[in-house]
Amino acid sequence: MAMRETDPVTPSESVRWDPQVYAQFERERTQPFVDLVSRVTTDSPKRVVDLGCGAGSTTALLARRWPNAEVIGIDSSVDMLHQASSMPDIPSNLFFEQGDIARWMPSSGVDVIVSNAALQWLPESLELLRQWCEAMDSGATFAMQVPHSAQLPSHVLLNRLAKSDRWRDQLGEDIRVGGRVAAPSDYLELMLASGLDAQAWETEYLHVLAGPEPVLDWVRGTSLRPVLGKLGPDDGELFEQQYAALLREAYPRTAFGTVYPFKRIFAVGTKR
Ligand SMILES: C[S@@+](CC[C@H](N)C(=O)[O-])C[C@H]1O[C@@H](n2cnc3c(N)ncnc32)[C@H](O)[C@@H]1O
User: Fold this and answer.
1) pLDDT at 166
2) End-to-end alpha-carbon separation of the chain, Å?
3) Dihedrals φ, ψ of 118, to 5°?
4) CATH number of the domain that 104 lies in?
5) Which residue is closest in CA terms to ligand 1's atom 20?
């Protein structure tokens, strides 16, 4: 495993992560990770890497599953990594490193590479994925999950509001709402063409969320961050109020909570 030494660590596209806000829906955000790694069949890896590990609670699941492996979580966010190292009961085989995963390459000896809900933040993720797959050892496994959120009402509305007359000048035409993801078949074909036996699939989770503005709270942890990062506190609050009104209409509360359908793309491949 190697970080190219000469490149500085740069956080992803002016996104300042907030571990507390992100962790608000930990159960819902952990389930796709569990579903992803359930398809990894490696018995006793020596080295496991989690790219974009965030606050590390999911990386800890890998360390507990494979207690004899060295498990390394890499993330560019100081805030997320601070939270990761403050986790109680950190398994002794779990380590965290600060780094830009866009500048990471697998070196010999890495048996499992996992990336959950992170690759969508990288501008050239397909090209990187191709390079990673080509550099992997024979027998090594890559498992990835990205949110397929661009067409969700929450993200369409956020995009529309950010590009409305009121906000366009402040936010800029190129403001990014949601990540860059390809079609499930693109990930599958890329892995197959890079010499992996691979599978890809998509799952729609129907989250039932509690609280008065749960979809706003959810998006605050991820896709709203680049927008709020560009606005000052007063404008940020006004933007959120306008966005919250649109979300209430799109996702009405029921007696059981607010149902938030959310699609995710998965791909897992093992190098032949
Ligand atoms: C949505 S969080 C997912 C965290 C974790 N994988 C999980 O499943 O809970 C995305 C993470 O990717 C990290 N990230 C984004 N771009 C990155 C980059 N270029 N290098 C390293 N980490 C990055 C962010 O700092 C953030 O912690």
Assistant:
1) 96
2) 19
3) -130, -35
4) 3.40.50.150
5) 100
Determine the distance separating the centroid of ligand 1 and the alpha carbon of 52, expressed in angstroms.
4
Q: Is 114's pLDDT higher than 50? A: yes
Which tokens hold the place of 17?
A: 């992560």
**Total-model pTM:** 0.92
Residue 267's domain comprises: 2-149+178-207+261-271
Report how far residue 132's alpha carbon sits from residue 117's, in angstroms, rounded to the nearest whole number.
17
Q: Strand, coil or helix: what is 215?
A: helix
Ligand 1 atom at minimal distance to the Cα of residue 102: 19
Tell me the CA distances in angstroms from 78 to 75, 85, 153, 158, 161, one per residue in order: 8, 10, 31, 27, 30
What digits encode the pLDDT tens for the residues 170-228?
998 777 777 789 999 999 999 999 999 999 999 999 999 999 999 999 999 888 988 99
- 162 with 175: CB under 8 angstroms? yes
Question: Does residue 133 form part of some domain?
Answer: yes
Q: Is ligand 1 within 6 A of the CB of residue 116?
A: yes
User: How many domains are contained in the chain?
Assistant: 1
DSSP 222: T
- Is residue 223 included in any domain, yes or no? no
* 52 CB within 6 A, ligand 1: yes
On whether residue 52 sits in a domain, the answer given is yes
In a domain, 159, yes or no: no
